What does this fold into?
Amino acid sequence: MKRRKDVAQIKKDIAWNTKELFAQKGYAATSMEEICTVNNRSKGSIYYHFKSKEELFMYLIKLSYEEWIASWHAKEEQYTTSIEKLYGLADHYVDDMENPLHNAINEFVSGQSISAEMMEEMLAIIRIPYTTCKNIIIQGMEQRELKKQNPDDLMYIINSLLNGLSTLYYELEFTEIRRLYRAGIATILSGIQNTYEKN
Amino acid sequence: MKRRKDVAQIKKDIAWNTKELFAQKGYAATSMEEICTVNNRSKGSIYYHFKSKEELFMYLIKLSYEEWIASWHAKEEQYTTSIEKLYGLADHYVDDMENPLHNAINEFVSGQSISAEMMEEMLAIIRIPYTTCKNIIIQGMEQRELKKQNPDDLMYIINSLLNGLSTLYYELEFTEIRRLYRAGIATILSGIQNTYEKN
DNA sequence: TAAAAAACTGACCGTTCAGTCTAATGGTAT
DNA sequence: ATACCATTAGACTGAACGGTCAGTTTTTTA
It folds into this structure.
C-alpha cells in the first residue's frame, strides 16, 4: 500500500522550491509557469498536488512559519538570560531574511479575493513571532533583567524593529545588516537619551 | 494662452486618485481598468497623460514622497528639541500610514522588469525619510540631548522601527497605533534594561 | 467663425494568466 | 503478463491584462 513517493514530502518540496519566487516577486507577479520551471514539473503535476495557486501559497506560509518557530525553539535552549535570547532572536530574524515572505503576505491579504477564514488563519500565523517575542519579554521582567512595563507594547515595538530592519536587504551588506540587528537590540536595551543635563 | 485645465494638475489628480488602489492592492494586482474607474476616465485619457502604468506609478511615488517631506518640514518648525522632533516624526509616520505605498514599492522594484536608472531613482526617493531622521539625530547629539554614537546606525534603527510599526494597521485601532508609535520612541530613548542588579 | 490643437473615447489587439483536460507513463499487485 | 491506478506532461481554454489607435468632442487661436 506504500506509494511510490511520499506525497506529503513532494508537497513540501514544491512549496520550498517556490518560496524564493514568492519572496522575490510577490504573489501576483509569480506565475504558475515559473513555479513549474523551478520545480521541474508540469502544470498538471503541480495542480495534482495543489488545487490552486492560493492553496499552494497558504501551504508555503504555514510551512515557513512552522519551520521558523521550530528552529527558534532549537536555538533558544542555548541561551539562558532573556537578554541573550533577544540578541538570539535578532540573529534568527537575520538568518530568515533572505526569503522574506512578509511582503508577499501583505500583498496577498490586501488583495480583495480572500475569505474570512483564510484571513483569520493568516493572522494567526503572523502572530507566531509576536508570541515568541512576548514570552522572552515576560521572562525578562520576571527575572528583573528588564524594567517592568506593558509586555504587549514592548512585543510590538521589538517585532516591528526587527521586521523593519529587513528592508535594508537591498541597501547594505549582509554582515552590516547583522551588526545593525544587534545594534537595534542594544539600543532598545540601553536607550539613547543622554541622562546628563545639557551643558 | 492659458489652458482650460492645467495639465500638470490633472496628472496630479490622477495620481492621487490612484494612490489608495496601489497602496491596498499592490502594483501588479491593480489593473488599468480599475485606475480608469476611480478616475472616471477612459483608458485613452489615462494613457494620454501617462505613457505606461509604470510611469504613472513612478510619478505617484515621487509625488507622495515630495508631499511627505514638504508637510514634515512644515510640522518640524513647531518643535524645538530633537526629542520633540522624534515624537513629531513618529506622528508624521502615523498620519501617512493609511496609504502605505511601501509594500507596492517593494513589489515593484522586486519585479524583474525595472531599469537600472529607475532603480536608482527609486532608491533615492526611499532614502528621503532616512535623511530626515538622520538630521534630527545629528542635531540631538550636537545639543547633547542624545548619547553620542553612530548616527547612521541610529537612523536605520529608528526608521526601521517606524516602518515596521505600520504592519499593525490590520491588527490594532488607530489611536492604539498612535500610542504605540510614541511608546516606540520613548522606549528607544530611555531603554528597557533594568539598571539595578537582580534580586 | 473657421481652422487648428488639445483632450478624450472605447473598441480592439496581442499577450499572459490561472486553471482544465486527456493521453501517456510506470510502479505494483495479482 | 496483465490490469490497475497514482502520477505526470503539456496542449488547450476563456478571461483579463496593458497598451494602441482611429476617430470624436471640446477648447483655443487668430
